[in-house]
Amino acid sequence: MFTRLGIYSLLIGFFIAIFSTISKFMNQDNIWVNMTIAKLMGDKASPMVESIGNESVQELVRYFLFQLPVFGLILGLGGLFFIISFFMKEN
Q1: At a CB cut-off of 8 Å and minimum separation 6, what does 45 contact?
Q2: Is residue 91 predicted with pLDDT exceeding 70?
Q3: What are the φ/ψ torsions at residue 42 (nearest 5 degrees)?
Q4: Exposure string over 20-47, b if 16+ CB within 10 A, otherwise e
Q5: What CA–CA distance (Å, rounded) separates 73 from 24?
Q6: Largest CB tally within 10 Å, which of 36, 47, 59, 86?
């Protein structure tokens, strides 16, 4: 199950990364170019970051929400699913 999730996540991440790269290369401004999780969440992202008490955790969450592209997160999840699948026994 985790192997399939990893494959699907990697395919979706590469798909979004390819379209984002093509859009940047062609100087087109569309949804793929600067898509971050904060843009998907809207106005809820900033209060969520401000509610975290620890400064170092707050900076980490701020990076994941405001600077990391969505395809980077999806590719990271795909890699994590693959690592989990190595350690879990398939039924």
Answers
A1: 37, 38, 65, 66
A2: no
A3: 80, -135
A4: beebeeeeeeeebbebbebeeeeeebee
A5: 19
A6: 36
pTM: 0.76
Nearest to 12 by CA among 62, 81, 67: 81
Mean pLDDT computed over 63-91: 86
CB within 8 Å of 58: residues ≥ 6 apart: 49, 50, 52
DSSP letters spanning 27-86: T--STTTT-BHHHHHGGGHHHHHHT---HHHHHHHHIIIIISBHHHHHHHHHHHHHHHHH
Hey, what amino acid is at 34? N
